[in-house]
Design a protein that fits this description.
The structure is a homodimer. By secondary structure, chain A is mostly helical. The first copy, chain A, has a single domain, classed as Arc Repressor Mutant, subunit A, CATH 1.10.10. Chains A and B meet through helix 1, helix 5, helix 6 and helix 7 of A and helix 1, helix 5, helix 6 and helix 7 of B. Chain A binds a DNA duplex through helix 4.
Amino acid sequence: MADGPTNSSGENLLFLTDEQLRKGIEAMFFAYRGFTADPDRILDEHGYGRAHHRALHFINRTYGTTVNNLLLVLGVTKQSLNRVLRTLIEDGLVESRIGKTDRRERNLYLTEAGAALERALSEAQRERMRAAYRAAGPQAVAGFRQVLEAMMDDEIRRQYNTLRERRT
Amino acid sequence: MADGPTNSSGENLLFLTDEQLRKGIEAMFFAYRGFTADPDRILDEHGYGRAHHRALHFINRTYGTTVNNLLLVLGVTKQSLNRVLRTLIEDGLVESRIGKTDRRERNLYLTEAGAALERALSEAQRERMRAAYRAAGPQAVAGFRQVLEAMMDDEIRRQYNTLRERRT
DNA sequence: CTTGGAATGTCAACAAGGCTGACATAAAAT
DNA sequence: ATTTTATGTCAGCCTTGTTGACATTCCAAG
């Protein structure tokens, strides 16, 4: 099952052929397609795209976040994010309130309808993730997370690690 | 390290909270960004996008593949693929030969220049994958691959499994 | 053999969502 | 008080997805 010989501590003896790495690359590509497939279907019914999903997800996660905050996490330009936000606000899924301390900022919140769509999307995605986790087992899940974390860019990993438990 | 209690065989006792699953979802999102970051930079210098990378990758992998074959793997429409292929052919990175047995088909090959770019792209991507694998260790890598496979759609998993070793 | 359908690939036009540039407004600094 | 900086919005471009229309080639039914 392991991809090469190891010593007792399981470190430093990974012999990785280009072919093994290539296989990993393709696994990542194909798995990501599966990962987005279910929410994509739901989004399509509502006339939205993946960009809307990402926005809903992170607004839900960090209640009252600002536009600036959001685009740091999403890694897109504010102009690009703005288009998506505008439609979500117009459609009544997101509420944008002028900042209390800094009136340049806009604090973002999901409305009831926004929260409902977010729930539907993330439930579909969680369902697939849950099934994959169940099929692979807890040890595999731990390894999965370790490799993914190691694959992130450094600043992003910090972002990722500052997630804290939240109630919906 | 495990995500929940397990019995001796490590199966069937995964208690997955929504928060744990949400963390996995975000890990996937952020890791995929890292995964594509290095090739994206190279592509940008050449005026290409991710679509070109995918085409180069799979043409390299399955030498002489047809357009039809390719778009099944890539999961896009032939019209979309065609635009990308056309530029690659015009730029002399890909050669398109009329099929020998079926003259409707086009067999696709990388030229020397195309192979060189593919090598540069995949080397950058492999380097990140290699670093992540090294950091996480062989057991984690095995788990990573298991979860990714479980996350794919069924037909895609078949595609993925029919990969065979190839020399560049 | 011919003819009608199915398969393969190309061309055209449209939509989503990236991008940069220009700008209004608010805050901060000089 | 005025300049500089930060946040967010509006306009327009480009890549890459989409569907529709079509030419070519193959194959099967008559």
